[in-house]
Specification:
Elements: E1 2-8, E2 13-19, E3 24-28, H1 31-49, H2 53-58, H3 61-79, H4 85-104, H5 114-127, H6 132-145, H7 152-159, H8 162-175, H9 189-202, H10 205-220, H11 227-247, H12 251-265, H13 267-278, H14 287-300, H15 303-308, E4 309-318, H16 321-331, E5 342-350, H17 358-371, E6 373-374, E7 380-381, E8 394-399, E9 410-416, H18 417-434, H19 440-461, H20 472-487, E10 495-496, H21 497-506, H22 511-521, E11 528-529, H23 531-569, H24 576-596
Parallel strand pairs: 1-3, 5-9
Antiparallel strand pairs: 1-2, 4-5, 6-8, 7-8, 8-9, 10-11
C-alpha cells in the first residue's frame, strides 16, 4: 500500500490517500513558497549580472562554449601548483575536444550533466596536483563512457598524447577489478588484500589514482540508486578502494571513501557516531580550528622558541567516523574512552645555525603543558628513543575539557620538518603494508616504481617547479595570459577573427557566433583582440562562473530547507521493508563490521 500525505499551509492539515507498493509519500504545499523565494533570488542575480549586452551575447551557444572552455581551463591550471606550456596545450586541446561532445550527451542518472561530472573529476585531480595527462584522462573517460562515439585510438591521434591514451586504457581495465570476485560473499580480507596487491603491482599508479577519484565521485552521488546497490558499491569501496587510496599516499581521499561507505552500509550507526562527535562542538567554528589557532598563537608568541625556529606550522585533524567506530568495536571502548578523536601536529623548521634542533621540540612541549593538562601515561618520546625504522617525534595527550564538561583527550605530535619528511616515508611503507604488501622489500620496490612513473610523466610534460623566485604579480599575469597565448597561434600578440573562428568551429559553434563575439569584445574595433581586451573577457567569464556557483549554493539551501521541513513534519520516506531493516541494523552491526574491517 502506498500512502500519500498532503500537508497544506497554513492549517497544516493532513490528507492521506493509498496506492499499492507500501511506500509513504508526503507532499507539502508550503514548500512551494520556499522554492519560489530561492528561485526568485537566482533570477534577480541573473538579471543583475546579465544586464551587460556582452554577457547576454556570451549566453548564446557559441559564446557559452568559449566561456566554458576558458573558465574550465583557468580553474584547472589555477589549482595546479606548476604546469608547463606542453601541459597547458594538452589540457586546452582536451577541453576543446570534450566540451562539445559532452554537451551533446544526455543527463546522467544522478541528474548531473556529463560535462559537470567530467570537470568535477578533473578538479579533484588538479587539487591532488596530478599532471595534465592524468587530468586529461579523467575528462576523456566520461567522453568514452558517456557514448561520445570516439575510441581511445582516435582520442590519441586527435590530442597527440600517447601517455593520456595509456592512462585511459589502464584506468578502464581497473574499473572492473572488483568483478574478479565472482561472489560478493567471497570478498573477504584475504581476497581484497590480494586484489589491492595485484593493482599496485601491475598498474600505473597514476591510473590507480584516477580510478580512485572516479570512485570518490561515484560514491558522492549514489542517492538515486536503490539501497542494495548503494551498499554493494560501498562494500567494494571500503574493502578495496579505500585501503588502495591509503596505499598510494592519499590519506584524506581514503578517509572520505571510508566515511561515505560507512554512511551507506550502516546509516544508523553512522548517525550515532556523527552525532556524538558533533556533540563536542561549541559555536559555529570547528573545535579543532579553535585549538589549532590557540596553539599556533602561543607557540609564535614564545620568544625562546622563535629564536630557535624560522617557521612554525600546526596541522589539525578529526578522527574519521569509520575509524572511530572501528576503535569502539575492536577495543570494546565507550565513546568517551576514545582518546584520539582530535589531533594536532606541530611542525618546526629550525634555523640553520641551531645545533641541537631537538631542543625546539621540547620547548614546544613545555608551552603545550602550560596551556592544557598533559596525561603523562599517554606521552611517548620517540626523539630520545626512536622507533626501529628511525621514526622520531614527541607524542602527548592533553585534557581539553572546560566549564565542567568532559571532552575526549586530544593527541599532539611535535616534530621538526626533517622528522616529518622521514615520517612521511615511513607512512608510505606502512600504507603499502596495509594495502596487502607484507614483504618490506616488495613494498620498497613498488615505492620506487611509483616515483619513477611520476618522474617520467614530469619529464615528458616538462612539468618542473620553478627554482627561481619570480615576482608574484608577474606570475599572475602569466597565468591570465596562458589562454591568450594558446589562442594566438601565429604569435603576433593578438587574436584574429580567423583564429577565433577556428576555436569556435572546433567547439561546434557557427562562424557567425565568432564574428558576433569579436564585435562585442573588440573595444578599439581593429578587427582583433589584444591581451587587454581578452583579459576583460576572462573577467566576464569569472563573473558568469561565480553566478553559476551561487546558483548551486541556492539550490543546496533549498534542499536543506526541504529536509528541515521533512524533519518538522516527521515525513521521512521509507518502505515497510526498509523500516524493518533499519530497526535491526544496529543489532547486527558489530558482527558484520568485523568482516568489513
Amino acid at each position: 500500500m502506498e500512502l500519500h500525505l498532503s500537508l497544506n499551509s497554513p492549517s497544516r492539515g493532513i490528507q492521506l490517500s493509498s496506492k499499492p507498493n507500501s511506500t509513504v509519500l508526503v507532499k507539502f504545499s508550503s514548500i512551494n513558497s520556499i522554492s519560489l523565494s530561492l528561485e526568485n533570488k537566482i533570477r534577480r542575480r541573473r538579471r543583475k549580472i546579465s544586464s551587460s549586452s556582452s554577457v547576454v551575447a556570451l549566453e548564446q551557444p557559441g559564446g557559452k562554449m568559449v566561456v566554458e572552455l576558458v573558465g574550465a581551463f583557468n580553474e584547472l591550471t589555477g589549482r595546479m601548483s606548476h604546469s608547463s606550456l606542453v601541459s597547458s596545450r594538452l589540457l586546452f586541446k582536451v577541453l576543446k575536444l570534450s566540451i562539445p561532445i559532452l554537451h551533446s550527451l544526455p543527463l546522467l542518472p544522478d541528474g548531473r550533466s556529463p560535462l559537470s561530472k567530467a570537470l568535477s573529476v578533473a578538479l579533484i585531480l588538479a587539487d591532488l596536483q596530478m599532471d595534465a595527462e592524468v587530468i586529461s584522462a579523467g575528462i576523456l573517460r566520461e567522453v568514452i563512457e558517456g557514448g561520445g562515439g570516439i575510441s581511445i585510438y582516435q582520442l590519441r591521434d586527435r590530442i597527440g598524447s600517447t601517455g593520456t591514451a595509456h592512462l585511459i586504457h589502464e584506468s578502464m581495465r581497473l574499473k572492473n577489478i572488483s568483478s574478479k570476485v565472482v561472489d560478493d560473499d567471497a570478498l573477504d580480507d584475504e581476497t581484497a588484500s590480494a586484489l589491492r596487491k595485484y593493482c599496485l603491482t601491475y598498474y600505473d599508479v597514476r591510473a590507480i589514482i584516477l580510478e580512485l577519484v572516479l570512485k570518490l565521485d561515484t560514491i558522492r552521488h549514489l542517492h538515486y540508486l536503490p539501497r542494495y546497490k548503494q551498499q554493494m558499491i560501498s562494500l567494494h569501496v571500503i574493502k578495496i578502494y579505500a585501503p588502495l587510496a591509503h596505499a598510494v599516499g592519499i590519506n584524506h581521499l581514503s578517509l572520505e571513501l571510508e566515511d561515505l561507505s560507512f554512511q551507506y552500509l550502516f546509516p544508523h550507526s553512522y548517525i550515532y557516531v556523527d552525532t556524538w562527535l558533533r556533540s563536542h562542538e561549541t559555536g559555529s567554528k570547528p573545535l579543532i580550528e579553535i585549538f589549532k589557532d590557540q596553539l599556533l598563537r602561543c607557540l609564535r608568541s614564545d620568544h625562546y622558541l622563535t629564536e630557535m625556529v624560522q617557521d612554525i606550522s600546526v596541522e589539525g585533524r578529526y578522527k574519521s567516523r569509520y575509524s572511530t567506530m572501528k576503535k569502539l568495536l575492536r577495543d570494546g571502548r565507550k565513546p568517551e574512552e576514545v582518546n584520539d578523536v582530535l589531533g594536532l601536529r606541530v611542525i618546526l623548521s629550525p634555523r640553520p645555525d641551531i645545533e641541537h634542533v631537538e631542543k625546539a621540540c621540547y620547548r614546544a612541549r613545555e608551552i603545550i603543558q602550560s596551556i592544557w593538562k598533559e596525561m603523562p601515561a599517554r606521552s611517548k618520546d620517540y626523539i630520545m628513543h626512536p622507533k626501529a625504522n628511525g621514526y622520531k617525534s614527541l607524542h602527548m595527550a592533553v585534557d581539553i575539557s572546560d566549564n565542567g564538561g568532559t571532552r575526549p583527550l586530544m593527541e599532539i605530535q611535535i616534530r621538526t620538518a626533517e622528522m616529518d619528511m622521514l615520517a612521511a616515508g615511513g607512512t608510505a611503507s606502512h600504507a603499502l603494508f596495509k594495502a596487502g604488501l607484507t614483504d618490506p622489500q616488495e613494498a620498497k620496490r613498488l615505492k620506487v616504481i611509483m616515483m619513477a612513473a611520476a618522474e617520467l610523466a614530469a619529464v615528458r610534460l616538462k612539468d618542473f617547479p620553478s627554482r627561481t623566485n619570480h615576482n608574484k604579480g608577474h606570475a599572475e599575469i602569466d597565468e591570465r595570459n596562458r589562454v591568450f597565448l594558446l589562442l594566438d597561434k601565429n604569435g603576433d600578440g593578438k587574436i584574429s577573427i580567423e583564429e577565433l573562428m577556428e576555436v569556435m568551429e572546433e567547439l561546434g559553434a557557427q562562424g557567425e557566433d565568432a564574428r558576433e563575439m569579436m564585435q562585442l569584445l573588440d573595444s578599439n574595433t581593429d578587427g582583433s583582440l589584444s591581451s587587454d581586451e581578452f583579459d576583460l573577457f576572462q573577467k566576464q567569464v569569472d563573473i558568469m562562473r561565480n553566478l553559476e556557483l551561487r546558483d548551486v549554493q541556492y539550490k543546496t539551501m533549498l534542499n536543506e530547507k526541504l529536509q528541515m521541513e521533512d524533519c518538522d513534519g516527521m515525513t521521512q520516506v521509507h518502505s515497510e521493508e526498509q523500516l524493518i531493516v533499519n530497526d535491526q541494523e544496529d543489532q547486527y552491526f558489530g558482527s558484520v563490521v568485523e568482516r568489513v574491517i
